[in-house]
């Protein structure tokens, strides 16, 4: 496992972009999970330098700073993805980094936790409000 300590991943925190070693990624994931998450079912098309064509995916939960989506496409932890997130009347073009890969009950589908990158603070505030409103409705 020592070879993993030399892999660097770019992530965004409240102070901006930073590089972290993979061994610290677990703590970053725990920090990300402090944000309030709500279940959703939103279809998106994901673009990635790994894929020639856009890939269909389904967002399963979302917070102000990240989301969980399911896809049949294999993405690597540390990969950057690009997508448009439609919520209500808003359609935000976002970038995220994959921070973990989660098996699902369907062996052909994987879940991916990701953190939004270089996100506009206004979009972050609107996503936080959306999550809060969804929690009140359910």
Name some characteristics of this structure.
138 residues, disordered N terminus, 2 helices, 8 strands, two-stranded antiparallel sheet, six-stranded antiparallel β-sheet, 18% helix, 47% strand, alpha+beta, single chain
* Contiguous helical run count: 2
The mean pLDDT is: 81
Number of strands: 8
Helix-strand topology string: EEHEEEEEEH
Q: In terms of structural class, how would the helical and strand content be classed?
A: alpha+beta
The major pleated sheet works out as: 6 strands, antiparallel
Give helix % range. 10-25%
Shape: globular
- Rg (CA only): 15 Å
The rounded distance between the terminal residues' Cα atoms is 43 Å
List low-pLDDT spans.
1-5
Could you give the order of strands across the largest sheet?
3-4-5-8-7-6
Strand content: over 45%
Task: Report on this structure.
This protein has 138 residues and is of the alpha+beta class. 18% of the residues lie in helices and 47% in strands. It is built from 2 helices and 8 strands. The strands form 2 sheets. It has a 6-stranded antiparallel β-sheet. The protein has a two-stranded antiparallel ribbon with strand order 1-2. A hairpin with a 2-residue loop joins strand 6 and strand 7. It is globular. The N terminus is likely disordered.
Secondary-structure blueprint:
Layout: E1 8-13, E2 16-21, H1 25-32, E3 38-46, E4 55-62, E5 66-71, E6 80-87, E7 90-103, E8 110-117, H2 121-137
Antiparallel strand pairs: 1-2, 3-4, 4-5, 5-8, 6-7, 7-8
């Amino acid at each position: 496992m020592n070879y993993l300590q030399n892999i660097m991943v770019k992530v965004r925190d409240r102070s901006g972009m930073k590089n972290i070693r993979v061994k610290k990624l677990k703590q970053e994931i725990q920090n990300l999970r402090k944000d309030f998450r709500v279940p959703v079912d939103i279809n998106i098309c994901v673009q990635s330098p790994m894929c020639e064509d856009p890939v269909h995916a389904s967002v399963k939960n979302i917070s102000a700073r990240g989301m969980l989506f399911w896809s049949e496409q294999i993405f690597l932890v540390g990969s950057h993805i690009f997508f448009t997130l439609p919520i209500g009347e808003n359609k935000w073009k976002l970038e995220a980094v994959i921070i973990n890969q989660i098996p699902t009950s369907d062996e052909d589908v994987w879940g991916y936790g990701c953190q939004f990158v270089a996100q506009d603070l206004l979009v972050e505030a609107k996503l936080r409000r959306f999550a809060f409103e969804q929690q009140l409705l359910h």
